[in-house]
Design goal:
Thrombin, subunit H, Peptidase_S1_PA, signal, Peptidase_S1_PA_chymotrypsin, about 325 residues, mainly beta, 6-stranded antiparallel β-barrel, Uu.00g045860.m01.CDS01, 6-stranded mixed beta sheet
Length: about 325
Amino acid sequence: MVRVQHPAIIAAFLLCLGSTSVLQKKEESWDTFDGVQEAKRSDESGFGVVIESNDGRTTTLSADEVNKIIKDACGSDLSKSSIIQRDPDESHDEGDATPAVSPRSLSGPRVINPSGYPYSACGRFDGNNGYSCSVTLVGPRLAVTANHCNQGKAGNSDFGKVYPALYDTKGTYARVDRWLRSKAFSAEADDAEVFDIAVLVLDRDIGHDFGWMDVASRVEDDWTGKTWFQNVAYTDAKDDMKKPVYQEGISFKRGNLRNGAGPLHSDALGYGGSDGSSLWYYRGGRGVIVGVASTLDNRNLVFAGQVGVAPSELTRLVTVAQSKIPLS
């Protein structure tokens, strides 16, 4: 098993600059969400959050209720919500780790050994219906993937298992207890790929063994076209999804949905199983996620996410989950 140690691992993942209010909490019962009725959407930014449980219960938080959770953690300014922002640039800070593999062309993703961070935070989700996707840890008991990876489950079983740092054979895993998605997501909608994001709540802490990535609080307009970004995915193009493939030097351009906010059209190559993987950059010793793979545009990955929107739906989902599952 990989044991990942990060200096000031909690401080690096504060929900708000200068605030540790969420991190000081103990884990709370999810029962305080149970039975919450959907309210009419307000004029405030964002959408509601749908929480599905293993026992078949579904709870919908309205946009107002989600905004209150964010405000309780971060104050009145919603744009400052979620994870501490780390701006990427074309040169890493002195002392930053370099990628574990040599640079590659975008035409040839290559297999890596995910024994070290940040690659160890990436893994595979196996649904109980046989559908598999890539996944990334974003907390001790939290992971992100594409929402369409939830293809249903058998009876009252869990949604499936998350295997971090999978290499050849299955090893350490955690079961998925809850599935959080944006109420804005509809598989039939024209803008489905903007909101095709889910946060998975795991039944036990595996993040302190394998590490987790941060989430960018905002994807800036001037990040488009920059070759800062990386991707690790478990695909059917290499070893039948048993080993991770790595791409770096990735850039993206913004889509024309949601008034041009998203999704993120990248030049990374995509294959079966790439869906659910993250687009991320490495800064200050941490991986920072900007989008989640949803679909393909020809052969290239399209990542669910939004440019110039704060808080994004990814930010909102992670903040709701962290309100129940602190990082300590």
